[in-house]
């Protein structure tokens, strides 16, 4: 409003309506310093002042002449800033993962850690490739296998497991922001999005060449028209949050979609941030605004499509008839409630007009009363609106079981025009642009698939071919860096979504380029990259450093990988592992998302959809359905599973390049106090009773299942002592009473009228199958569950070493 622009030194010196913001060499006379110091009328930031050292730093900078790093002249770039755009560098002489890693360790004067023990190594590898713990039998087989290729056989077995795709698809779904709902205020269900999720899992299990993976997701419908798998793959373009309501301007929401897919397509495959270029030339990378809108023009003829597509033999559509019947029953019950309200209106009208039949009522009176909902109390009116909204939601849910693909299609009209939007404003069109790719010279070496066609069809395919071209150095670098990140905890480039100037520089640039070249030479095989990385000495090292004191000075963040970096399990792996060791993990895979049990307070929390209360969260009635792997649970943007949320699950609205691993007190409540944790521990105790005879033997078995080792003598003694204390306590206490699920009654306030009312939720038509209850087992079993809860909360359980 004041006309102040601080993007360049010249504009800062010029200032806004109040005059120059900076007077070089004279901080006291500079308006920006006066505002920050709070000395004049203008005080910034409002409220609390900046820290004294920050104010002092600003004074020192201005008094020093306000030196300003100047950007290179237009068209010029610093080669170091565009390292990721340059061709892959060839490595002279023999090269290997260990060659590159060991050389830097030696140059730093560090000593590499020795190999990890075999039980630790198979646990590490199994979690890396399947996201599940190894069985005691698998550990024993590896420990006792003295052959030279024993670990290679383990890796091959894990790569062949169907659980491999479930594990590695989750990494890709993080990047593309997969969810089963639209997001925003209404967060409507995306009934068929699950087909894209299952496509990604299949692609990893099949070791689909990465080039094909790219072509299918960006332009599968253009590349292979009529191919079911390729059509499902285009769900990639629909993964971002999106909402169109009666109050939305279609042109605005359309532009939001185009902005979203322009940025995130580049981020996912090329590791660049394009969003900055929407309003102005990228400040740090050679990405002009014109390039942004040329890319956007590629998608300008792309339309949403619910494409009719029969369920395929490789898709899981078991139980669809039952699922359909369940939702239809919910619709029937809701309509019955509405009909009961209508009957109340009919009876009121009969009484009002003192007649006995509807035929005796004046013409049109009843129809008008039903239309206006006359004779209903304010509470009933609020319920009426909620019931009608439920019908809309349930009817949408029916599509889960209809043969439709969540996909895109090309418009029949190729006349859509794209303009550079000044300041990113839809109302300020500037230069007209045609579809194209990034103009960075290094990226123009191969024009495969270019120029873009004039027709509506084929634009996305041309873009996909350019991205997937072996001559595009960004593509291979980005994907091998993502793979490396999930094996070693951090990418060679620590910002996997940003290979630009403001991203982190590679710790091992030569290794990154060698890996990218190897990837291309081996047909874009992701499984081959697992073999290459995991069979290295670097991957198989112990997680205990040799000289921790020296390491703290030379390489405190372990960028040089002198030891294997331990890391906490991701949220989904933690939940799946707890279910696995307890014997409760369901083997079912694929199909529409299921609903696990979550905290009841969260389940009953009122949520609004278009001003009306949405149905309460209701877990799937069957235990086998509820206890599927987390990747198969319904991913609703507005209701995150507390276990996933507490342990740093991904933001479903933004591309997640790397999971955080924060440590907060609420994680303790999730693992010690939650119903999920206690139910799991109880199921674990029941399992051990079937597999081992004595308390000591059960503790040994628990260690082998949860930690892939036996307890030490001291650990066994401590847990037995705790078990004995818990047993005495449970025997002294009264047996817990059964706690069947009660009908959900929600106390609500109508958004529009402020009317308070209660709403009883319809329970699932299918009988709810309870988890194992404390009331069903002996005091000794409950005591063992309390003992196992300690084990499930140990660092060794939730960390991979």
The strand line-up of the biggest sheet is 1-2
Number of strands: 10
Shape: globular
- How far do the termini sit from each other? 55 Å
* Fraction of residues in helix: 40-55%
Assign the structural class, choosing from mainly alpha, mainly beta, alpha/beta, alpha+beta, or little secondary structure.
mainly alpha
Give the amount of beta strand, in percent.
5-15%
- Name the poorly predicted regions: none
Main beta-sheet strand count, sense and barrel state: 2 strands, antiparallel
Rg, Å, rounded: 31 Å
Number of helices: 31
Mean pLDDT level? 92
Topology diagram in text:
Layout: H1 9-14, H2 31-37, H3 52-63, H4 97-107, H5 118-130, H6 136-144, H7 150-159, H8 162-176, H9 194-205, H10 210-223, H11 228-233, H12 250-270, H13 289-298, E1 302-308, H14 320-352, H15 365-372, H16 378-397, E2 404-410, E3 418-421, E4 429-433, H17 459-468, H18 473-488, H19 509-521, H20 526-534, H21 548-554, E5 567-568, H22 571-582, H23 600-603, E6 608-609, E7 612-613, H24 623-626, H25 642-646, H26 666-673, H27 675-691, H28 695-707, H29 713-732, E8 745-749, E9 756-760, H30 779-792, H31 795-798, E10 799-800
Antiparallel strand pairs: 1-2, 3-4, 5-10, 6-7, 8-9
Helix pairs in contact: 5-6, 5-7, 7-20, 8-9, 10-17, 12-13, 14-15, 14-16, 18-19, 18-20, 22-27, 26-27, 27-28, 27-30, 28-29, 28-30, 29-30
